[in-house]
Specification:
With 149 residues, the chain is α/β, with parallel strands linked by helices. The protein has a single domain, classed as 3-Layer(aba) Sandwich (Collagenase (Catalytic Domain)), CATH 3.40.390.30. Helix content is 50%, strand content 17%. It has a four-stranded mixed sheet with strand order 1-2-4-3. Strand 1, helix 1 and strand 2 (38-44) form a beta-alpha-beta unit. Helix 1 packs across helix 4, helix 1 (16-29) crosses helix 5 (125-145) and helix 3 packs across helix 4 (102-117). The longest helix is centred in the C-terminal third of the chain and has 21 residues, at 125-145. The radius of gyration is 15 Å and the shape is globular.
Length: 149
């Protein structure tokens, strides 16, 4: 996968190498047909994510991550797969609540968003369990290549 990364929140640490690692591990371990696609990941503010959540999901509240699939035909090569928006402040809060680093939370949300882009969801308990297990498997690979603080 080709990564386009942007941090839209001033004074946030640079997560570009972590996001690139997550995208690379995802594309190598999940489905190679997405290797020539582009994915855009942005770190955004609470205002931005709340506005987009209200506009596209009719849910007027801050959320941790939004994914927008932009690819209508998964068999097409050299296309933009989609966009992932991660709310920095929500990720920071969740990291504190869960007792792990912000970097680990950013990685978790990135991988979660990538699964949504290729069609996974968590509408049922079984879907949730399957998606969560796949996320954990990929995060364990990320941990082998990245030192979380």
């Amino acid at each position: 996968m080709i990564l386009e990364f942007e941090a839209q929140v001033p004074n946030t640490p640079d997560y570009s190498s972590l996001i690139a690692l997550c995208v690379d591990i995802f594309s190598q371990n999940i489905d190679r047909k997405f290797q020539n696609t582009t994915v855009s990941v942005a770190i955004v503010s609470e205002n931005t994510i709340q506005h987009l959540n209200a506009q596209y999901r009719n849910n007027d509240k801050v959320t941790d991550v939004l994914s927008f699939n932009l690819m209508s035909d998964y068999s097409t090569e050299d296309m933009t797969l989609g966009e992932i928006l991660i709310c920095y402040n929500k990720a920071l809060l969740q990291a504190q609540e869960l007792g792990h680093s912000i970097e680990y939370e950013i990685a978790t949300l990135c991988i979660h968003g990538l699964f949504h882009l290729i069609g996974y969801d968590h509408q049922t308990d079984d879907d949730y369990q399957e998606m969560q297990q796949k996320e954990k498997n990929l995060l364990s690979i990320v941990k082998q290549h990245y030192s979380f603080s």
